[in-house]
Every structure is written in structure tokens, then in C-alpha cells.
Write a structure and sequence with these properties.
The chain folds into 3 domains: 105 residues, Gcn5-related N-acetyltransferase (GNAT) (Aminopeptidase, 3-Layer(aba) Sandwich), CATH 3.40.630; 164 residues, Gcn5-related N-acetyltransferase (GNAT) (Aminopeptidase, 3-Layer(aba) Sandwich), CATH 3.40.630; 95 residues, SCP2 sterol-binding domain (Nonspecific Lipid-transfer Protein, Chain A). Helices cover 26% and strands 31% of the residues. The chain is built from 10 helices and 19 strands. The strands form 3 sheets. Strands 1-2-3-4-5-14-6 form a 7-stranded mixed sheet, with helices on both faces. It has a 7-stranded mixed sheet with strand order 8-9-10-11-12-7-13, sandwiched between helices. The radius of gyration is 23 Å and the shape is globular. The structure holds coenzyme A (COA). The site of coenzyme A (COA) has 19 residues, from helix 1, strand 4 and helix 3. Coenzyme A binds next to helix 1, strand 4 and helix 3.
């Protein structure tokens, strides 16, 4: 049985999380997890009178190509006790979630997958990708200096807490795939690190307005109680936690600041978009090394006609898509997508021959513009009536920027 947990079952939910992910929460993590359980939507699976599985979800706006905002359900902490695996518990939790989310008008579902083999069978596909980068400061010289770029100044933690949410809220509307960040997400992001790292927030300011920020951490001192001397500069690493810019000038100013931070040899980033312009800010583009490239958010379309109509396309054209969906039968069938010159689409059931045939996961892969229809067709994940149909689909679905999702959840 899938249901809401009762208030007295909070500990049991957190214990499922710990046992499933094989970790133990610190008291602070436990308090934060308890808060997010209370703030979000949690569903538990009960079997033989025992709680054996759980998932968390919250409703959030997601930005579509073209800037439209849709309601998505962001899913996290899908967890089944190690003693009760491979008996369909997660499948039951997801089926329940899909039905509930569709019923409450959510067009799609997003998650970060712990393992790549789990979610494809449920109609998910990577909807965005991320790279983590490494930059040796010694090799990183800017190719050009821009005149009149915004000034950069450091924000105190209290200022950061006041200013950053509004900047991010504007920025997230500019890139497909971005989700709004919850108050709990902000609290976790802005929490001072507990380890030896020192955290700083640099803001790009133009005409008195904060146009972007970079949160970064540097381990410059030995941890308290550690007998080791301070790390030599050659071993010091700055870690970029988050960089958000409202325009290109702020983006360039923040990178130019980060490259200039002294007493640091290496700059590493957390997940960043694949099409990071930084490479082209550098005199030697190879100074920016990709440490890891991975799928980022996974997407599952819950209401295909409305999701297709919610995004914008690049120019006028039409396509007939034939879709299969084993979990949300309302998505299966043939749909005509007709896009006008402004990029706005109307979507209606169609009896015409299909231009593209695929399952709902392939559509999720292309929905935000992360993966081309040609790539999907080459992998056998989509088939096209003609090569011209693939060209047409890529012209329509293609985006100038790669999608990305900044908040973790
Ligand atoms: C992943 C997890 C939630 C799966 O729960 P479960 O109840 O065992 O899953 P189900 O029994 O419903 O499995 C459904 C299908 O997914 C497959 N599957 C489950 N876990 C899988 C995994 N880790 N990798 C690949 N396939 C997996 C099952 O084999 C089954 O396939 P089938 O439909 O072909 O029979 C559970 O193993 C778990 O808690 N893992 C650790 C925490 C974690 O990684 N959670 C995911 C967070 S994003």
C-alpha cells in the first residue's frame, strides 16, 4: 500500500533513507531531512504492516525552451529497504506518484538518478547533462579583457542570503531545465561549511544592481587540531559551488575574478553546463579540463500534449509524432505538432502517417534540447519516416543553449 506517512512515522522514513543509501545522517542533516520531509510530499510503501520504501517530491516551476514555465514534480530520495528490493516496491511508488502528479496538473517529473540503469524503464531519460571542470590557474589567462565590466565585491553571509535568491530567480528563467529552488534548498546552499574550507560569495555589480554571483570555497588552512602545516599554495584548491549570471558581462567578470584569486593553484567546479563559455574566455582553451561528463536531471513527461505545447520551437513547421508509453497510457498515440512562425505550437491527436516514432523516454531526451533527434535515431531510440523528418525535428526542437538545472534536490 502506498500512502502518506503519519506524523509519528518521520523517524521510520529517515531510517529507510539511511538504510537504503547506506549512510548515517549527522544531527544537522537529520534535522534538515526532517524539515524537507515535512515541507515536501512524502509517500511511503507499507508491506505486511512495515514501512519498506519511501520517496520525496515537491512541486516546482521548470523553465522550458523559450522561457515558458511549467509545473514539474521534483522527486528525490527514492528508497527501498535492502531487505525488500526487487519486489516491485519502487515501481508501486512511482506508479502512485505519476498518477497523483498528473492528477494535480504536473506536466513532467524530474530527478537526479543515483544509477543510470534504474529509470529508463519508467519512461525517464537524461533531459540535461553536466560537466565538472578543472582549471590550473597557472595556465589560465584571459584571451581578452573587457572594458567596463561589472565590479566584483564580496558579500557577507547575511547579505548573500538576502540578495542571491532574487538573482537566481531571474536567472533560472533564462535557461531551459532550470528549477526554482526551495527555501530548504537555499538554507542548505548558504549554510557555512563545517569542515576546514572557507566559503566566499563574490557578486558582480553593475549600476548598483547585483547581476550575478559566484559561491566558492578554499581550503587554505589546516583543519583545527591537525598537526600538518598549512597546505603549500601548489596544493590549494578552490571549489566553485555555484556561479549564476544574469548577463554575459557579469559572467565574464565573475570568471575573471575567480581566475585572479591568489594563493590557489587549481580551480575545480561542481556540475556546470556542457556549453560553458569559459573555454572561449581563455587564451588557451585546453587550460579548461573536463573532469567528468555525466547525465544530470532525468525527465519524464506526464502529459505529452500539454508539455509539447508549453515549450517554444525554432521557427515554423510541423511533425507527426507517434509515441508509446507503458506507464501513462494518455501519452500513447499519434500527435500532430504544428508550430507557427513565432515558435508557438498547437498539439492535437492525428490520423496522418507518423514522421517520427519513439517511446516517451526518447521525447524526454529531446524535450529540453539536450539530445538531437539524429542522435536518438542513430541509437535506435527513434525512427523517422525520412532523413528530412529528422532534420525538421532537429530544426524545431534545437536550442541555442544546452539545458541545465542548477539546484540539487
Ligand atoms: C533503486 C531502488 C529504489 C529500487 O527499488 P526496488 O523496489 O528494488 O525496485 P523494483 O523492484 O520496483 O524494480 C523495478 C525494476 O527496476 C529494476 N531495478 C531496480 N533497481 C535497479 C538498479 N539499481 N539498477 C538497474 N535496475 C534496477 C528491477 O530489476 C526491476 O526491473 P524489471 O521491471 O525488469 O523487473 C532500491 O534498490 C534502492 O533503494 N536503492 C538504493 C537507493 C537508490 O539508489 N535510490 C534511487 C535514488 S535516485
Amino acid at each position: 500500500m502506498i500512502r502518506r506517512p503519519a506524523a509519528h512515522e518521520l523517524d521510520a522514513v529517515l531510517e529507510i533513507d539511511e538504510a537504503s543509501f547506506s549512510w548515517k545522517m549527522s544531527p544537522a542533516e537529520r534535522a534538515r531531512a526532517a524539515e524537507s520531509v515535512e515541507a515536501g510530499v512524502v509517500r511511503v510503501a507499507e508491506l505486511g504492516g512495515e514501512l519498506v520504501g519511501a520517496l520525496g517530491a515537491f512541486s516546482a516551476e521548470m523553465t522550458c525552451p523559450g522561457g515558458g514555465l511549467v509545473r514539474a514534480v521534483a522527486v528525490s530520495n527514492v528508497a527501498v529497504l535492502p531487505t525488500h528490493r526487487r519486489r516491485g516496491v519502487m515501481s508501486a511508488l512511482l506508479a502512485h506518484l505519476f498518477a497523483e502528479a498528473r492528477g494535480s496538473g504536473h506536466l513532467l517529473c524530474a530527478l537526479y538518478a543515483s544509477e543510470g540503469g534504474i529509470y529508463g524503464r519508467f519512461g525517464f531519460a537524461p533531459g540535461s547533462f553536466a560537466a565538472t571542470y578543472r582549471l590550473e590557474r597557472g595556465a589560465a589567462r584571459l584571451a581578452r579583457t573587457a572594458a567596463g565590466q561589472p565590479a566584483v565585491r564580496l558579500l557577507r553571509p547575511t547579505e548573500a542570503a538576502e540578495v542571491l535568491p532574487a538573482v537566481f530567480d531571474l536567472a533560472r528563467r533564462q535557461r531551459a531545465g532550470e528549477l526554482e529552488r526551495t527555501p530548504g534548498g537555499w538554507a542548505a546552499l548558504l549554510e557555512e561549511p563545517t569542515g576546514p574550507a572557507a566559503r566566499f560569495v563574490a557578486a558582480a555589480v553593475a549600476a548598483g544592481e547585483v547581476m550575478g554571483y559566484a559561491i566558492y570555497e578554499v581550503v587554505s588552512n589546516a583543519p583545527a587540531g591537525c598537526a600538518q602545516p598549512e597546505a603549500p599554495v601548489a596544493e590549494r584548491v578552490a571549489r566553485l559551488v555555484e556561479l549564476v549570471a544574469l548577463d554575459d558581462a557579469a559572467y565574464r567578470a565573475l570568471w575573471s575574478y575567480l581566475i585572479g584569486v591568489d594563493l590557489v593553484a587549481t580551480l575545480v567546479t561542481g556540475p556546470r553546463p556542457l556549453d560553458e563559455p569559459l573555454r572561449f574566455l581563455l587564451e588557451d582553451p585546453r587550460a579548461l579540463e573536463v573532469r567528468r561528463l555525466e547525465d544530470h536531471t532525468w525527465l519524464r513527461l506526464l502529459d505529452v500534449p500539454r508539455a509539447l505545447a508549453a515549450r517554444r520551437y525554432r521557427g515554423a513547421g510541423s511533425l507527426v509524432l507517434e509515441l508509446s508509453d507503458d506507464h501513462c497510457p494518455g501519452n500513447a498515440g499519434r500527435f500532430a505538432l504544428v508550430v507557427d512562425a513565432s515558435g508557438q505550437a498547437s498539439v492535437a491527436p492525428s490520423g496522418e502517417p507518423a514522421d517520427l516514432v519513439c517511446d516517451v523516454a526518447a521525447l524526454a531526451a529531446s524535450y529540453l534540447g539536450a539530445t538531437s533527434w539524429w542522435t536518438l535515431a542513430r541509437a535506435g531510440a527513434a525512427s523517422a519516416a525520412t532523413p528530412a523528418a529528422l532534420d525538421r525535428a532537429d530544426l524545431l526542437f534545437g536550442t541555442a543553449e544546452q539545458p541545465f538545472c542548477t539546484p540539487g534536490f
